Amino acid sequence: MRRLPLAVALAASALPAAAATSEVTPSGFLVSLREEVPASPQQAWDALVQVSRWWSGKHSYSGDAANLSLEPRAGGCWCERWGDSSVQHGRVLYALPGKGLRLEGAFGPLQSMAVNAVLTFRLEPADGKTAIVVTYRVRGSPDAGLDKLAGPVDAVMGEQVKRLADLLRPAGEPAAR
After folding, report:
1. Is the per-residue pLDDT at 55 higher than 50?
2. DSSP 3-state assignment of 88?
3. Residue 85 burial (10 A CB sphere; 0-12, 13-18, 19+)
4. Does 162 have pLDDT greater than 70?
5. Angle at CA 73, nearest 5°, toward 156 and 64?
6. How many CA atoms are closer than 13 Å to the CA of 5, on its beta-carbon side?
């Protein structure tokens, strides 16, 4: 199937300008993203912890973002529940309102690969705005072939962080680059 590489390239071209994937090897990668929003760090936090408002249902198991929830406390769950089904996407390791959130969780297809993955959101004051700085570090065994997933994961994470930033921007305001 020749469409997958084209789809990955097109998705990557739509990423926020501040996106970068580095440390790409068969055993891991690091996705780094940054978006500035016209909001206080506390407003950014309040939006961040309402994952059902900004995470795309296309990138969920149920297909409906309304089924997502996040308990913003150490040990809390980033979960998805619908009917008799449920998925734990991540477990909260660090929750400092207005400052940052860190989760342990292998999202999507990474979950079945027995990898270690840490997703960190830092909220940094930036000239009356807030910089949302996101890193997603994924590590696994050398035979995991994670270098082949780095681009698609970068594209999905980039889309989600942009959706979070867009939630915090007034309607019609373009992203700051």
Report:
1. yes
2. strand
3. exposed
4. yes
5. 40
6. 2
Q: Which residue has the tokens 């082949």?
A: 148
**Dihedrals φ, ψ of 99, to 5°?**
-125, -50
Q: Which of 137, 158, 135 is nearest to 17 (CA)?
A: 158
Domain residue ranges of the chain, discontinuous segments joined by +: 3-168
Q: Could you tell me where the DSSP H helices lie in the chain?
A: 3-13, 41-48, 51-54, 150-168
Crossing angle for the helix pair 41-48 and 150-168, to the nearest 10 degrees: 120
Contacts of 80 (CB under 8 A, 6+ apart): 60, 61, 62, 67, 68, 69, 86, 87, 89
3-168 is classed CATH 3.40.190.10: no
Task: Give the sign of the dihedral formed by CA 168, CA 172, CA 176, CA 177.
Answer: positive
Look at the alpha carbons of 116, 136, 31, 164 in this order and tell me if their dihedral is positive or negative.
Answer: positive
C-alpha 131/C-alpha 38 separation (Å) is 9
Q: What is the structure's pLDDT at 20?
A: 84
- Whether the per-residue pLDDT at 41 is higher than 90: the answer is yes
Structure tokens at 131: 């910089």
